[in-house]
Design brief:
This protein has 4 helices and 2 strands. The longest helix has 38 residues. The protein is elongated, with a radius of gyration of 19 Å. The protein has a domain of 73 residues. By secondary structure, it is an all-alpha fold.
């Protein structure tokens, strides 16, 4: 399968990859491993709903980017160099705005995660931490799939260096 913008926004993966379904499956796997107690379920449901909402936003961003990219490619062929430069500057401004909004979303995700994490016992926290470490390694090893969180990965993380090229 060819890599493309596809679903997932900044994440590049096969165009038929279902990011939301993958996220739901990942959450179900984690939920099973955590063996949550009934009193922890409200915290789980709040956190998991936020994770799914974030995944849906990534899909929407990815779909919009794919559409915009195709039309922009054609428009560039018909423009002068100054016009193309102006479009490039505008595109960077748009990307900067999106990145600022993404930081707001990530801050909210971090706060939701901390709230859920605080509801876990010590063993569950260990499972949660190990689960995401394994998931990040899995993602980084797939077809050169890189996300911003992997670009500054510290050396010595289980012998994996996601920033190295295969």
């Amino acid at each position: 399968p060819g890599a493309g913008a596809g679903q997932g926004g900044m994440f590049r993966h096969a165009s038929n990859f279902d990011w939301v379904k993958h996220t739901q499956q990942t959450l179900e796997e984690l939920k099973g491993k955590l063996s949550l107690k009934p009193e922890q379920m409200p915290a789980w449901e709040t956190w998991a709903a936020g994770v799914i909402a974030d995944a849906n936003q990534q899909v929407e961003k990815g779909n919009a980017a794919a559409t915009d990219k195709a039309s922009a490619r054609q428009a560039l062929k018909d423009e002068t160099t100054p016009q193309r430069m102006a479009k490039g500057i505008e595109r960077l401004r748009t990307q900067t705005s999106w990145m600022q909004a993404q930081l707001v979303r990530l801050d909210a995700a971090q706060a939701r995660t901390q709230t859920f994490y605080d509801a876990l016992d010590a063993q569950q926290k260990t499972i949660f931490d190990l689960f995401w470490t394994v998931m990040h390694h899995r993602i980084a090893d797939q077809d050169g799939w890189r996300t911003p969180m992997h670009m500054a990965w510290p050396q010595g993380c289980g012998g994996l260096n996601p920033t190295s090229q295969p």
